[in-house]
Design goal:
The chain has three helices and eight strands, in the order ββαβαβββαββ. It has 153 residues and is α+β, with helices and mostly antiparallel strands. The protein has one domain. Strands 1, 2, 3, 4, 5, 6, 7 and 8 form an eight-stranded mixed β-sheet that branches. The longest helix is centred in the last third of the chain and has 14 residues. The two termini are 24 Å apart.
Length: 153
Amino acid sequence: MKGIIMQDTNDMGIVPIERTTKDIVDSSESLYVGSLGDTAEDKVKLFNAINSAIPLRDYVKSGGKAFTCVNIIAHDAEFEDMNNPGVMLKKPRVIFITDKGDSYASPSPSIFSATQRLLSIFGNPSQWGKGINMLPKFATSKRDLDYLTIEIV
């Protein structure tokens, strides 16, 4: 399996892994990349996908359709707690990269859980062939709260 996870003591629990390093440019940030790629161009695309990803929530709200996911990136990120302004939370941010080169990101715990299940069932993105068609959408919990999820289509 081809994949890379770089982790610190805050293991994000995403498998499978091929290589591990505890030193990411002198940072404690964790990073998972489903398929790193072989060329400098591949790595530039991954870097840009991380830095310019569209929020998945915004994509869904704007009527976003199903897309073909060809790679997944997950990394630790800090976000302000919506219920406690000024309080920062560290949690995983998942980025889906499409076959068209678009990228959609979410810090949603439900998206992170769905991604863990996706990788457990379908394996690493390098095993997917042409990718996996998925539809991001909102669902409603038993407590009548909306949350993000993905459906394989």
